[in-house]
Amino acid sequence: MCHDELIQLYVDGALTPTERSVFSAHLADCPACRRELTAYKALLWDLEHPSVTPAPPELQAGAEALMAAWETAQAADAAAASPGLTGLRIAWSGVAPVARPALTAAWWTGSGLARVGRIGLTGLWRLVRRGGGRR
Amino acid sequence: VDSDQTIVKHCQAGRSDGFARLLLANQERVYRRAYSFLHHREDALDITQEVFVRTISAIRSFDPGRPVWPWLRRITTNLCLNHLRDRPALLSLELAKGQPDRTAGSDPAEAALAHWDWQQVASAMARLPPLYRMALVLRHQEQLTYEEVARAMDLPLGTVKTYLFRGRQALKELTEERGG
After folding, report:
1. How many residue pairs from chains A and B have C-beta atoms closer than 8 A?
2. Digit-coded pLDDT (tens) for B10-57
C-alpha cells in the first residue's frame, strides 16, 4: 500500500477539503489505494456497528448491592442533617487531629460495622460474585 | 422513558426510584463500554460497580441540565485508565501473542455473536494493546473527535493519532489474517 495513513484519514473523514480533493485525484489513478480504501471502509463499518452481547447475569446482583449502598448513603445523609449528629461533628472537630486516627480505628474495630467498613462496597461486590469464579 | 434531567433531579432529591432508573438506563452500557476497553469480564464488572459507587456520592453536585452518559463515560474511561496504569504489562503497545487471547472463550456471550464480520473484528480487538483499543472505541464507537479522545485519555493529540493509525492498521492485518 502506498498511502496507508492518508487512506485511514480519508475514510475517517479527517482530511481537510483540500487534502481530500488531492487524495481523491490520486485514488482515481491508483488501484492499490482503492483496494485498501475498500478494506478500511469495511473495517470501520464493522467497528462502528458492534453486535450487542447479552448482559452478564452478575449485573443484577451488582444493581441490588448498589441500591443497598444508595439507601445507606441516603440514611447517612439524613442522619448527618439531624441535630444530634451535628453535635457529634462539632465534638469531633474539638478532638486533636493527632488523636483522630486512633479514635476512628477504635470505633471501627469496636463496631459490628467494622468488617463492612474495612472491605467497602467494592469488596462486598467481589465476595458476591466470587461464586462465579475468576478466569 | 424518563429524561436524564428527571432521573438526576429525583436522585438529588434522595429518591430511590431515581437511582434505580439511573441504573436501569445505564448499567449495561457502562459494563459494555468497560468491557470494550479491557476485554476482561470480571474487571469490567468491577469497574461498572465502582462507577456507580462514585455516582452515588457525586450525583448531588451534577448539573441536571447536562446529559448523563458523557459523565458516566468519563468516569468509566478514567477508572479503566487507572486500572491499566496500575498494571504496567497492560500498557505494552505490543499485540497479544497467539490465539486465543486472554479473553477468548471467557464470555459465553461472545460465543453467541451473530455477526461473523463483527466477530472477526472483536477477536482482533481483543489482541490489540489496550491503549490502542481504548482510542479506537472512543473514536469509532463513541464518535468522539480526535481532540476529545486525547482529552478523555489524557494524552497528547499526536499520540492519540498514532494510536489510532497503528490500531486500525493492526486491526486490518489481524482480520485479514483470520479471514484469509
Report:
1. 116
2. 999 999 999 999 999 999 999 999 999 999 999 999 999 999 999 999
Separation of alpha carbons A38 and B50, rounded Å = 41
- B174 to A65, A82, B36, B127, B167: CA distances (angstroms): 40, 61, 17, 9, 10
CB contact under 8 A, B46 and A54: no
pLDDT in tens, A14-63: 999 999 999 999 999 999 999 999 999 999 999 999 888 788 999 999 99
pLDDT of residue A105 exceeding 70, the answer is no
Q: Which residues of A touch B139 (CB under 8 A)?
A: 12
Q: How far is CA B172 from CA A127, B121, B141, in A?
A: 40, 8, 17
Q: Report the half-sphere exposure of B142 (CA within 13 A, side-chain side).
A: 28
Nearest one of B44, B55, B64, B50 to B19, comparing CA atoms: B55
The rounded radius of gyration (Å) of the Cα atoms in chain B is 17
Q: Are B80 and B104 in contact (CB under 8 A)?
A: no
* C-alpha to C-alpha distances, B36 to A49, A71, B29, B162, nearest whole angstrom: 13, 30, 10, 20
Candidates B133, B140, B149, B176: best to mutate against A (most CBs of A within 10 A) is B140
pTM tops 0.80: no
What is the C-alpha to C-alpha distance for residues B46 and A134, in angstroms, rounded to an integer?
Answer: 12
Which residue among B20, B45, B122 sits closest to A58, beta carbon to beta carbon? B45
Contacts of B37 (CB under 8 A, 6+ apart): B44, B76, B77, B80, B130, B133, B134, B137
Residue B19 makes CB contacts below 8 A (sequence gap 6+) with A66, A67, A70, B10, B11, B56, B59
CA-CA distance, A18 to A10, in Å (whole number)?
12
Q: Is the interface score ipTM higher than 0.90?
A: no
